[in-house]
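Q: How would the structure tokens look for this protein?
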Amino acid sequence: MPDASREVYQRAITQLGAWLATEHPDATAVEHLRRRHVDGWMRHLADDLGRSEATRRVRLIALRKFLAYLGSEPDIPLDANPAEHVALPCLRDKVVPIIHERHAASGSPALFLSIRSGDRGGWRISGGGIAEMLSRRCAAVGLPPVHPHMLRHTWANDLLSHGANEDDVEKPAGWRSPLMVRRYGASAASQRARDSARRLARGERV
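A: Here is the predicted structure in token form.
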């Protein structure tokens, strides 16, 4: 078992044991554990300690797996997993603000914003700025450099691979000629041809 997983299991069991010692001192062995105990511990984590849905979910999953392991051992008298049917906390969508509404750039329609206004008063980051940003992040995680146009190639290839025609790709990209579609889709044209041939299965229809 990885050390990280062992630590997660240990934290859940230690916290449950501490709570049981205070609230249910008669539950001194694993065979004494019931679903009501697990439900009560989950409420304690939420109401008394203010733990998030994500934290409570991790604790409950760790407890489930640990008890399932104990139940598989022939010398441990655990007939059923008391945590098995306890509802997992639902994770709620969390809104993460990209830029504060009082910031001067908050009204900009651009997706990528610079930390300072440009010469013309706009906040849109330049193509060179995006390339530099990607290069820094690739270097930070040890990946080969990624150029923004590589993402455009991927976008075009993905549309063409899923049945879009050249006009469907040309218009959203703002291109004026199907030659640009072929250029940006050329990087994976051979793979698309093989996939199409496999879908048509001509050899099986002879």
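The longest helix spans residues 3-23.

The mean pLDDT is 81.

Upvote if useful.
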